[in-house]
Amino acid sequence: MDKITYNRIKVALAEKGISNKALAEALEVSEDTVSTWCVQRKQPSWENLYAIADFLEMDVRALLVPNKKSPTKDFKF
Q1: DSSP assignment, residue 63?
Q2: What domains are there in the chain, each with its CATH number?
Q3: What is the C-alpha separation between 52 and 15, in angstroms, rounded?
C-alpha cells in the first residue's frame, strides 16, 4: 500500500517566497529538519505544524491537503 502524505510546506514556502532557512530560524530547528519536511522524508510534529502555519500566516488545514498523487475524493477536514 502506498503511503499517503498530507504536507504542502514546500509549496507554501515557495508561494510566499520564504526560504527554508527563514522557517528553520523561526522555529529554532535546523535547515536539514525543514528540508526533510519539504521533501516528505519526515512529517513535522503537530506542534511544529501549527508553528509553521502560524509563521506562514495560514490555516493549518491548508498545509494538510493531499499531494497530487493521492486520492482526494475522501479527504475531509
Answers
A1: G
A2: 9-63 (1.10.260.40)
A3: 14
Q: Which residue has the higher pLDDT, 72 or 8?
A: 8
CB-based contact 38:10 (threshold 8 Å) = yes
| 59/67 Cα distance (integer angstroms) | 17
What is residue 65's predicted lDDT score, i.e. its pLDDT?
73
Q: Cβ-count burial of 32 within 10 angstroms (0-12 exposed, 13-18 middle, 19+ buried)?
A: exposed
Q: Cα 76 vs. chain centroid, distance in angstroms? A: 17
Q: What pLDDT is recorded for position 4?
A: 53
Q: What is the pLDDT of residue 3?
A: 56
Task: Give SS3 for 6.
Answer: strand
